[in-house]
Design goal:
The protein is mostly helical. 44% of the residues lie in helices and 0% in strands. The termini are far apart.
Length: 66
Amino acid sequence: MRGRSGQRRDGRRDAVGYGCVVGLHLSQINEADELLTNDPLALLIGMVLDQPVSEGWSGMGQSVLA
């Protein structure tokens, strides 16, 4: 059942315009997938941390801090 806000009783939001819940399955851990599906900030932070870092940039850390 849905309330006026478009949120279901179990706390999950419906996909816009489709009336069904879409889950993300990005990891092999069910709890992690549930967190990424329900928390947009966790998804954003996970995507940023998943980006590769070049060797040149990663070696510059000590000179930038000094």
